[in-house]
Predict the 3D structure of the following.
Amino acid sequence: MAKAFFRLQKFLRRTQFLLFFLTAAYLMAGSLLLLQRSRLVIQQGSRGTPANQALPVPDEMSRAGIIDPRTVQNPRPGPRLLVGMDGLQEAALEQWHSPHWLMSRNSELRQLRRRWFHKFTSDQEPMQTAGFKAMKHTAEHKGTYMGCFTDDSKERTLKGAVFYDLRKMTVAHCQEACAERAYSYAGLAYGAECYCGNSLPATAAKPEECNSECRGEKGSVCGGVNRISVYTVEELRAGARRRRNVIYRGCFRAPENITDTFPASLLQPNLTVEMCSEFCSKKEFPLAVIRGQECYCGYPTGHFSLHDSTDGRRCSGTHNASSTAEGKYCLVYQTPVQDTRCTDRKFLTTKTKVFVALSSFPGAGNTWARHLIEHATGYYTGSYYFDGALYNKGFKGEKDHWRSRRTICVKTHESGKTEIEMFDSAILLIRNPYKSLMAEFNRKYAGHLGYATDRNWKSKEWPDFVNSYASWWASHVLEWLKYGKRLLIVHYEDLKQSLIPKLKEMVEFLNVTVTEDRLLCVENNRDGNFKRSGARQKNFEPFTQEMKDLINRYILTVDEALRGRNFSGLPREYVPR
């Protein structure tokens, strides 16, 4: 009996130890998971420092009556917001350090972690349950499967119109994108990456080596590791090719050695724009140049930069060689083909010693600036947050930990003293607050590329948004001026107007050397995938006079602070409005 009891006791001790070990391992894994991303803002509507986090108010802000909206739980302006204005001078800061605030902050952080963990687990199963249901609605692709080929990222044959979709990539989706850009072949790799081109890769691989299933289409082959599945673009798109966008770039003086400047040419009687564009598209060149009956294809270069256009009347007879001022001028068109000289990007091979922030107020063009920087330097940019939509479109640094130091700079909307002092230097991107507020409001209600509805603009949410976010626009700049160690101030409007000089300044600040041709390539691909299509005109003025008075006051305060730090002031177009 004693022997049986001893065996039972030994078994229970082993089981107890096993349960204790498994419990400890589970808790440690969960803690590491939450700690890794506890500072990330996953919810699309939350940008920058969380809403309830209190930040110290700089002296300039106190004098101007500016307070970060994140210090106020109620989005409506409190007494502190309007200090210096008629009859309102109370301060209500005691709540910052009260137990009530701390409990609220801890509760918010727990909710944030739950949201992130839910998103994380759902991302791990993109091909299960709901994913399969979505695939049933995907249209079948058309075109011939050409086979499996080796894929060398350094010498890629299909290198045009590169894009990613880590959740919904299908063969038809890739084919359609390639067809719109006048390519003949669509190649898919790693289950989620799409590449286009007009020539097949040189080296074929074994069919079984293309073993990655398309992320958005069960049963379809989308390449593999260093392998690419190539399909022809459906023949039915041939009629649509003639209707693809060919953009007129202007009339320019032809280079002296035109045959040396452009690597491909065609002499064609009765030459038309469509003929020349189709010829250059098949040769995979982004520019189609017409002089008389001559068609030339190439890229923007130092010899032909497209910076000095001339009067269009000089090219009025370009299709008639006898009336083109002896062939001195030519017409230039942008083909649907992508300029691929600057599309290669990678992570830094060694960790950077200088931790650089790309800081801006939400809606100030941070994503666009990242696009320019990545294509100019050839290195990915990181992010203090995680945005799946940006990651799917090729910003691979989104999923890299923001403190990994493997990216050339890190996007942030933070403006607290602690957050600022973590960086060694920063590019501070500033945009007209009127435009920034509207851009962020659009993003908040319609995503990166959409527009808020008239109903959103006319609701009470818009004035609440302006009252809260307008002060944040000012406090963001003022706090970076106060706590930033080494700053490069870039105005969005200046970058838009003088892209190459300003981009060169940014690249030099990042201590990267680039060629002129690469910068011209960036200029040729300046818009990227996150530019809203045109400015949607509204039939009403969204800003009331009270809003304008408030915003103009913040503009003057920021302008004074910039000049006080020996930076150039804000562009004149900011005020008056």
